[in-house]
Here is the input.
Amino acid sequence: MDNHTKTKGKNTRRAFLKTTGTTLAATAVGMNMAYGATDFSSKSKTLKVGLIGCGGRGTGAAVNAVNADPNVILTAMGDIFEDHLDKAYSVLKDEEPDKVKVDDDHKFIGFDAYQKVIDSGVDVVLLATPPNFRPDHMEAAIKAGKHVFSEKPVAVDAPGVRKVLAAAREAKRKNLSILSGFCYRYDNINRAAYERIHDGAVGEIRSVSTMRFGGELWSNPRQPGWSDMEYQLRNWLYYDWLSGDFITEQAVHSLDLMAWALGDRLPVKAIGTGGRQKRTDPIYGNIYDHFAIEYEYEDGVKGIHLTRQQSGTKGRNSVDVFGSEGHALINPASAARITAKGKDWKFEGERNNMYQTEHNEFFEAIRKNKPMNDGEWMAHSSMLAILGRMVAYSGQEITWDEALESNTHLGPKFDEYAWDLKWPMTPVPVPGKTKVLKS
Here is the structure.
């Protein structure tokens, strides 16, 4: 789970058509008129932003958004919990007093807050709720003609991934931009290293291994008056139906880096293991604390992913790309080195704030009427994590197609959410017994 800092200019995560010819120009304008995307090419035209999900990640994304363009303001906020919204508003108003213009009647609370934000007159929405809500929120935002920033992952199950893929296709049709929260793709170190890898610096890629090792995270003790639903929502990290387990919620960053190295092609199948060895207290819900997954691709290339969340253990965040002519070692947002053909390369360029860069590019794309759309690859990267969870939970080998086509849905139906809904926690998965595929 990401924490955020509060200071402008620092990372706010984890602490905090140019056309030629009148025919093409007319076509672009026609698309905007037909599908609802507004022309913001004039920088004097204000872009209004709505925040859906007011936790630390949402607060950080809002800071990045309003700093991405001189004429961007935050005008609406929504969250399930009033205390989350109030805290975020206070931080944002203190941080960016001239860019936070959220009147009291544009502060929305409850399960329908997302729709009220979308309908409030905003142009851009920032989706930063727990992941299980994201597919429906994205679908609603794109349907309403809004540009979307979506935190990772985009879903916790295959039906959600399919819904996001459909929304991404609709966004392209409507000339709308979608920005992914897979922020490592916007870091200068990674971009420089991956450009060389894709240009053949290590030769033909034979395997990619990723490691994401870290400690245990926060939990909120149950308070008098909390329903079961509220308790689970306030501790959403630890319930598979809300977070998708930590391989989906956090370690998915590493799987996205693996996918990027391999040109975002899809694996054929996966097999692996996982379990709940140390983090066994009931406060940790029903998720695992470690996974080890092997992904196999058509040409025999293997992707290996190892991850754990266990306190007192050595931390590591790395990507190793092994090729026919060399090796690349990348520590995302920290360092990169490529050793190949008897030569070494390491990143020595200008560092950047990847969280700010992604929003800068997002709002620039909106201004230029040149939509960016991360939708397909961010959905597929999220599905890599879901597939990894499925093989670990079940102990079975599962193909990509079996996983993506599965109708196994985690959690209640979207229109069933209510504070008094008693959603039972499923048992901790047992490999060899737990079933994960539903036709």
